[in-house]
Design a protein that fits this description.
CATH topology of one domain: Peroxisomal Thiolase, Chain A, domain 1
Largest sheet: 9 strands, mixed
CATH architecture of one domain: 3-Layer(aba) Sandwich
Shape: globular
Radius of gyration: 18 Å
Mean pLDDT: 91
Strand content: 15-25%
Number of strands: 9
CATH superfamily of one domain: Thiolase/Chalcone synthase
Structural class: alpha+beta
Order of helices and strands: EHHHEHHHEHEHEEEHHEE
Helix content: 25-40%
Low-confidence stretches: none
Length: 277
């Protein structure tokens, strides 16, 4: 795969104003932060997806797992930031979109009548989560929707940081994945749902949790991606692409000033620097 050119690229510096987190055994950033900084012992469990109550009832009934996870973490991050969701440009990123919906459509096409549910068809577009977000929040700002296999989080972070700096505007990043049913699971074994959201701003504020920096000319590295010392958290990092965010979240939780290498597009990884605010 051709790697992006970094010739003449500017450094990127952004500030984290709010974080959303939901996944197996993770019920929000307040709890997740304690697992990541070592205050509590992490134990894996099934991800519990809340109903997207911000949606009107008709849309709420149609919302699948990708919408529920992305809206949950997005709302948590925006509420923590103190900013208005309707004003925020957004970046939505996943490994490959809605696997459950894809499975159900394929099953219908392979059946005798081959009729596809209108709701399934409605949710089949890759930007469904972004669309539902705009309905719930009233957001009219631009929204980018990415798909990058195991590099979904890092690709989304790079896009969101770039937009934040170039446009001199806060940006919401939402990275999410959901489980794959069989027979897709045998080829793509993602066992559960997980979502991570960050509200990024170009300048520090009283709410800022951390600064994330990226060298525009040397952010691609052949170094191995950082791993988690806790074996259960490392299993989570390896099995759900959105969980590749965990080393970055751990540095923020521990208030460490440290470089972090995130899983990106093999054989290259993505290097950022984290510093507490």
């Amino acid at each position: 795969m051709t790697q992006p050119s970094t010739r003449g690229a500017m450094p990127l510096n952004v500030f984290v104003e709010g974080i959303g987190l939901l996944g197996p055994g993770l019920a929000g950033w307040a709890q997740g932060r304690q697992y990541l900084d070592g205050s509590l012992h992490y134990e894996a469990g099934r991800c519990v997806l809340p109903l997207p109550m911000a949606l009107p009832s008709a849309e709420r009934r149609r919302a699948g797992a990708v919408v529920r996870i992305s809206m949950a973490v997005g709302q948590e991050a925006v509420e923590a930031s103190g900013l208005q969701a309707k004003d925020l440009p957004s970046v939505f990123s996943s490994s490959s979109g809605d696997a459950v919906n894809c499975h159900e459509i394929c099953a219908a096409l392979a059946s005798g009548d081959r009729l596809i549910s209108p709701t399934r068809f409605h949710n089949s577009v890759h930007n469904a989560s972004s669309g539902y977000w705009s309905i719930a929040s009233g957001a009219m700002a631009s929204s980018s929707v990415l798909c990058a296999f195991d590099a979904g989080f890092a690709a989304g972070l790079l896009e969101a940081m770039t937009q934040c700096v170039v446009d001199d505007s806060p940006v919401l990043l939402v990275a999410y994945d959901t489980e794959y049913p069989e027979p897709l699971y045998s080829k793509r074994p993602i066992p559960d749902a997980m979502g991570v959201a960050l509200v990024l701003t170009p300048r520090r504020s009283a709410r800022s949790l951390a600064r994330i920096s990226l060298d525009g000319t040397r952010f691609l590295t052949a170094a191995a991606a950082d791993t988690m010392d806790d074996s259960a958290l490392e299993t989570l990092r390896q099995t759900i692409p959105a969980a590749r965010a965990l080393p970055l979240l751990q540095a923020i939780a521990k208030r460490d000033a440290t470089p972090v290498v995130l899983a990106y597009l093999d054989p290259m990884q993505m290097a950022v620097a984290v510093a507490p605010c």
